[in-house]
Write a structure and sequence with these properties.
Distance between the termini: 141 Å
Structural class: alpha+beta
Number of domains: 3
CATH architecture of the largest domain: 3-Layer(aba) Sandwich
Number of helices: 22
CATH topology of the largest domain: Beta-lactamase
Length: about 675
Amino acid sequence: MRDLKSARIPESNTKGLRLRVQLLFGLFLALLGTAFGRAVYLQVFQQEKLRGLAQDQYVRQIDIPARRGDIFDRRGTPLAQSVEVDSIWVDPSMLPNVPQAARQLARAVHLDGNDVAARLSRAKRFAWVKRQAKPQEVEAVKALGLPGLGFMKEPKRFYPQRELGAHIVGMVGTDGHGLEGLELAFEDELSGQNSRTSGFRDAKGRKLMVQGALDPLERQGAAVTLTLDRHLQYVAEKALAKAVDDAKAVAGMAVVLDPRTGELLALANNPRFNPNTPEDGVKNAIRNRAALDAFEPGSTMKAFVVAAALEQKTITPDTLFFCENGAFRIGRHTVNDTHPHGWLNAQGILQVSSNICAAKVAEALGREKMVAAYHAFGFAERTGLALTGESRGVIPFPKSDISLATQSFGQGMTSTAVQLAAAYGALANDGVLMRPYLVSRVVDPDGVVLLENQPTELRRVVSQRVARQVVGMLESVVVKGGTAPKAAMDDYRVAGKTGTAQKADPVARGYSDKRIASFAGMVPAEAPRAVILVVVDEPKTDVYGGNVAAPAFKEIATAAMAHLAVPPSRTVAPAEVAAAAAPVVPPPAPKALAKAVPVRAGLEVAVTETPEPGTVRVPDVQGQAGREAVVKLLAAALEPQLQGSGRVVSQTPPAGALVEKGARVTLELATRQ
């Protein structure tokens, strides 16, 4: 009999299977939907981000540095240029032995092995071996055959004239940015615009340019043309170096200026440095003293005081002043002349450089008018040479009589060498002050003129008549009887003025025994084509401008006249020379005043302070034994107080201080080891 129960289909199992299939189908459908949604999200909403991430793995933006613009002198001679050189880099991860490779690379590029090893050990995939390497160093590195080496072309600044004009041109750093001089002042114009282009990076990280080479004109800086003349710059630097060496001085400056246009034809400094190897130079040698530093100009300022007094009709060329036979008391100070003189007119004051009579001219002129005249000649204002850090100088208002006197002969005020040369240029240019300038043109690679300087009249300082009168007076300075006969030339008439200034001591707040010797001259005197200023800082062998600076002026002037093709002056008759050097006949005066005093030997201090009654100067007892120092202080009416034993190593108050009689002076003594 058929078993109907066993033939029945199990409904419960069929339903369970269907349910499981539906669940699996739903699950797969959900997963497929999620994947599809994720794909849509990534492809649509995250498209740009993912594309950027992908490109970052193989596409690189390559910076193409601009070729720095050239700097030329007035005749087109290059003073600064840029050349393409190789910089060496390495992927340290590819080196089998980093310390050994570092030693090999250091020997090839002449660097310290420890420094190279430290840089390679810190880096993962990139490290500089040496930037802007020399060709022989590049070949030596290639010969090593090390893996992971790379070479990149970079522009390097090159100065074909080496030291010539280096202080004006300046220099750049390893990164190609200006550090000093015109390289810094015209950084934006010279540097140009860096370019960026796309390139691929291969598996080794090497950059491959895909857009081809860019137009070099698109990445080149502007060219700068100067007013400097390479030949005159060479002559000025050579003559200045000889003057500094002969005088055993610490530094020197020289300026050659065209008074008709204000163009600076030469701007020399000493000591010199080579901008191609600035690391070999002394830090102080890099500073452009002639354009940036201010100093007390000394007696070269007397010409402007006389010119202002003549212009204001305070004096005439025949007005006589009594020079007090070499010593003139003003309050508790005494103004001194190097040599004693009696009666002098304006020409005689300039010829023998009398401090006393210059002070009397300033007194007759007045404080306000003298300061106004200095400002009119361009002092205490920047000349605008476009050099960073240019000083403006200082002309304090002379509130006291002694300040008025000292400023009349260039002490108690400061000036730059360019300011001083430009002021003499005003006298040489018939009384018109021209703006001195150094940069003639700045032109971009397309020929567009970005900057162009032209001769610019600033103002008329004195009349043509007064300017020519003063220039004529200054001719007497270079003849026999003047302070600078060594500046006289055989074929050209010369006018000029010497200066010997005391240097201020900022520590002692007074003047030291150091000097600045200078000579400012113009040639030819009848129609000046060049104003030449020579300044020698701290000469040792001789301190007078007529002996230290005047010979260098003559050497520069001789070369300048030949180079500029200036015809010789008319012959100066002996009678004219004798007349220029003849002493002034004084008016009737007491014999005691007119009597000549013998010339005093040695260096005269321009201003000395006269002790008031009841005061005394502390004598110098440094290095003396204790007993000797006590005797010397007691003789000066001072009370000594000793600390220690042996010889004096310090004293308080210092030597030269003005104190009351009976004041206590503390001496510190020590025994020499």
